């Protein structure tokens, strides 16, 4: 499933595409919201692994503006709930992710991204 928690870890791996290949940009997406169990400890532990600006930008691409531009010093319940929603409850069901460097499109179908490359695209 394409959620922003996984999107935040994906980069383009086309041969020769080594700069400006993260984050992948969403296009023509259909999203579905699904409830997920709230776990503040998990969120606090996962937060240091996130590329924050990429997460905020991706959330905005999907129509969610609930995250602040910078991680707040005080991680209160309101912030953690917004982070939980963006990371775990927004599911991209259809669409594509595109590399901003080389333009390669990774299609998303039934919530599953196709990250496979043709033989001539493999580094």
TrEMBL record:
One of its GO terms (biological process) is tRNA methylation. InterPro entries: Trm112, Trm112-like. GO terms for molecular function: protein heterodimerization activity. SUPFAM superfamilies: Trm112p-like. It holds the Pfam family Trm112p. Gene3D superfamilies: 2.20.25.10. Belongs to the TRM112 family. Interacts with TRM9. This is Trm112p-domain-containing protein. It comes from Schizophyllum amplum. The lineage of its organism: Eukaryota, Fungi, Dikarya, Basidiomycota, Agaricomycotina.
